[in-house]
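ok so i was messing around last nite and threw this chain in just to see what happens. nothing serious, just curious
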Amino acid sequence: MPVLAVAVGYAAWRGHSARAAAVALAMVAVPVLVMPLKLWTDRTGPLTVDSGYYPSGHTATAMVVYCGAALLLRPLTGHRTGRAWAMPVAVVLSAATGIGLVLRGYHWPLDVLGSWLLCGMLLVLLVAALRWIDNRGAAGTGAGDK
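result:
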């Protein structure tokens, strides 16, 4: 979460408050999407009789935090900003988080896969929202990204 907080703060400070708000809203959507699924499936974890392990909330949070921060660092407008490294790093960190949770016995592999798919869809919507924000600002409507 601190990674996303710094990225959102940086984007807002640089005048991209609408982009920052969209990414923050995507993070708010994570528990809204994950918690009902956890309650509905009521799945036990690999090393416990406790339930509520599907989908993995930690994997979902990591994916949206890291990829959302990367999207804020590298705007989608097509121009190079020298931050092309951000998304590959975010993907590696997200994958490492999910794999680590499985290897440590905190989640079943399908718990992590479910989170990756769920948040992949969320990130697709976020990219579309960021492109819409960028296009709206580029069109000079006066309701830009500031």
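not much to say yet. The chain has one domain: 2-138.
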